[in-house]
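User: Lipoprotein, Tsuneonella deserti:
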Amino acid sequence: MKVLPLLPIIALAACGPTTGTRVASTPAEAPARVGSVPATRPAPPATGGFRVAKVMSLPGLEGVIGVDSAQLQRQFGAPRLDVWEGDARKLQFSGEACVLDVYLYPSRPGAIPTSTYVDARRASDGLDVDRAACVKALRK
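Assistant: Predicted structure for Lipoprotein:
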């Protein structure tokens, strides 16, 4: 049968425009809806684009919040993950009891990032757990 070798060509031809119109590589902007988020980003803060991170303050997190990565590694050992995004850093420590994500941000441009926020969850199913209990369980 001679039609079989032509099937891939016919299939590819069906993918392109048939009217001679241009196909945009990005979709056109949809009209703005009432109550929608504006398409433009807000202006950076007056501090030159640097924002000071809010520091978490919860009982049981003393010695974890406000310290640098070296101090965290002395407490919990080598991190499972060490991810940099710009000047921010995320260290992840894990054990049988839980997974602890520690977020570090510099207090000013060029400063060494220190921990400002932690999040904890069970390793088995990802459900949130008490942060202080996770810190206690993971400390060496």
